[in-house]
Amino acid sequence: MVQIIEGESSSSNRHCRTIIRGADRLSTLPQHILTEILSRLSTVEAARVSFGSRIWMTTWHLLPNLVFDYSQFPNVVNKAHSFVRFVDWTVAHHDESDVKIFELQLGPTTYCEASIKYQWVEFAIRHNVQKLVLHGRVCGTQNLANSIFSCRSLVKLELSVNELVFSWPETIQLPNLKKLKLKFLLLPQMISNQDLFSNFPALEKFSMFFCNIAFFDVLSISSSRLTKFTMSACPGMESCSIRLQTPSLAKFIYTSWDPRESVLQVPPCGFSLVVDGDDSCMCRGSPDELSRTVVKLTRELFGTSYITKGRWLIQMSQGGVVNRGSGGYVTDYDSVGDFGDLNDVTIKNFG
């Protein structure tokens, strides 16, 4: 860490000395207040301050939030090597206290030469991490550690890992995971026939961005608590049908990013929403057909003569609204149905 400070500019070192002098005046405060103060700084600045006195070093060793952002790391000689050493040094000197947030922001990968080490991820899991964010490349492998899927403390998981094959073991123990975000991952053929996330009992929000699902004919998701599902610009999504068994769904966002298409093209099998055991399909592409199908979908799902939904929206490539409801009674159509917990349906195409 001293070498990192020595490699920085004189103005940066002057700023560092100013921080440390100010920190010395605060070192008599109670431990929990010192921890809160240090947590407000970036991880690198907190490390600098920790060299100011023994009490700050002790505070550094039990810091609950660790965010390693390569883009914010000092521009020193051999930056990637220094960054890796800094993360190694941090996890090696941390005490046995819990880590609530552990983030590795190693992107964009076009210029970041550092890679995510398994030891760093294992450290976070051993320290009962609640929020785990991995952005970059994983060193020497294309698979995740199985231990991630048995981290009972995990509440939020974000994976944005290039060239990573997203698969999981037969046994999954993520009883507290509420939010899952996936980017740039490959979903392999071996899990294409599985009902995804049925073993994630607490999952409330799930999003996929730029994930390759080319091996999937049908993407089937079952989750009793899922309230928001986002699927955006995933290779293979135009030929993949979606089946959602999600009775608590409140918002569904589908974004197709295909410059060859000017309107939304729904696959032949369409989207299947499963609510209380009833299936309905939405399977047409033109704006008029989509509007009619949404109405038909709600009729078949709920079969009542009124609607008490919040709102729904279908938006095409130029941003024009095809049809929109704003709550209360709908006068354009009769016998539309009641949406129940379904408050938002947003379908976009940026073709």
Automatic annotation (TrEMBL):
Any matching Pfam family: F-box
Gene3D superfamilies in the cross-refs: Ribonuclease Inhibitor (3.80.10.10)
Matches recorded under PANTHER family: RNI-LIKE SUPERFAMILY PROTEIN
All residue ranges annotated as the F-box domain in the record: 26-64
Protein name as annotated: F-box/LRR-repeat protein
